[in-house]
Amino acid sequence: MSREQRAKIDAMLRRPRPEGPQSVEAIRAGFREMMAEMIVPAGIRTRAAALVDRPAVLVEPANNPRAGTILYFHGGAYVFGSPETAMSLTGNLVAKTGFRALSLDYRLAPEHPFPAAIDDALSAYRTLLDSGEEPSAIAFAGDSAGGGLTVTACLAARDAGLPLPAAIVAFSPGLDTTRTGESMDTKAGIDPFFTRETLEHTGALYLAGQDPHHPMLSPATLADLTGFPPMLLQVGTNEVLLDDSTRMAARARAAGVDVVLDVTADVPHVFQSFAGVLDEADEALDRAALFLTQHLRTPDTASTPAG
To answer: Does residue 159 carry a pLDDT above 80?
Structure first.
């Protein structure tokens, strides 16, 4: 356990911030500045891409790529963030698995509130299928709000009659806009990143007056997960959103879905972003990479004889 590493990151996340609600522009700028400090691994290459009418970033291994695609959804409360701010995460998943990732630049609130992000995620997935990619060779992955999108995009795909992807990996997913999880209160003050007030501020921008009691807004408590692919949910104990993952795991298990709930002690929201400076981040990404390689079925794995 890396006590000193965790303490250093916790102190960094508790640096003084402006009091009161910030403007959307200030929130976006502050997040870009913070995420620019994250370490992007070597051994990858990136270029601009497009999925239907939305931009994306293609992240590929520099050497020995494998067949298979990770469709990645960045975090940022549906209000901020971009494929660039999530590059430490996508880069590590690509470097550790050999699969390519397409990181979607979905539309953000308040300019484009619910359900714009879900619509964009579904369109991106449909584009991959229409291009000839097999669903068994596609995984959804994401962090925070993007972790929520891994679930709601699956719900949307199932509702549209599409085959579902092979797997879901969600880092600290936001899965309940009703904010009814006990951890919203029990982790108050322990979470160095979020408070109920900050989540309600950005949440209101995304909801734009919609009732949060909707399966696409609070799937951890309201969604029918029947037929879902295997899921890996990774979360830290120092998160007000902890119970979004624990309740989603219970709901998935009750629906007969293979689910791994991976909880790491004393780490903050989307701690995997700190790969290279936090041992637990690198270890969690190793587990996520293993999960993906176990569940994606590609030509190079389908022809491999069983052990």
So the answer is: yes
